[in-house]
TrEMBL record:
Name the record gives this protein: SEC-C motif
GO cellular component: cytosol
Coiled coil stretches, renumbered: none
MF GO annotations: aminopeptidase activity; metallopeptidase activity
Pfam name, any one: SEC-C
Species per Swiss-Prot/TrEMBL record: Saccharophagus degradans (strain 2-40 / ATCC 43961 / DSM 17024)
Gene3D superfamilies per the UniProt record, alphabetical: Collagenase (Catalytic Domain) (3.40.390.10), Glucose-regulated metallo-peptidase M90, N-terminal domain (1.10.472.150)
Source organism superkingdom: Bacteria
Amino acid sequence: MWVIIKRWLGLAPPVLPAWPSDWSEVLNQKVTFYRVLSAADKKVFEQRVQLFLHYTQVEAGSSAVTDEDRLLVAASAIIPVWGFPHWHYFNLKTVYLLDQAFNEQLQFGQPDSCITGMVGTGPLAGKLVLSKPHLHLGFSNAKDKHNVGIHEFVHLIDMADGECDGYPERLKEFAFSVPWFELVRRKIEDIDKGKSNIRDYGATNRAEFFAVASEYFFERPAMLKDKHPQLFESLTAIYNQDVLHIAQDIKITKNAQCPCGSGKKYKRCCMPAS
């Protein structure tokens, strides 16, 4: 992994601190994608978390940035590029966490303060802004097909080829784009007609469809495969990974042992509040 990153950045390998054991506990509790990985893949995920955080600043406004904040930001970044072990977000320097939803001027409490995530352009190029509570909500409710952290990092992936057009050329050869865009056109039409369970915001444009569909893909893969098999297969090819192992679609009884490995009953551990 480091060979490619070193080549891009022209830097010596960083000396990374020892991985804190409580960080694994946070990821097990909060990130389904990590929780269902093998022990070996968890180690790789952890290494990629450390590399991401080494090169990316995570800052906040009036509140302090916690380790959990940093870990959820890093998980949001790594999940969509898990199938590409040498990926580096060269177009990102800083992630800003704000205390609530905001507008394009990053203001709170205004009539248009409804943005929960935004990739910076112009003076904000190289920056990503997230509402902290919505970042956490994206991981605490892993059944709603909505994760703003993943959504915004998908935009960064899309923009890595210089254009936010709903097709990540750095992940997939351009020849694949024609059938992809035709599929997107049909799916957007279905959303507009009320014939889809893909979130309405996905009909905004092709870039937003790609980000919204990606949230669905990583949160509810079994449902996506059942409801939208062609879209599922296309996203599987784009992201180069099999996400059906994600256990979120498996029904767990309240009294069963929690899948996070805590030894507690599911209802007393990771079961979402009703």
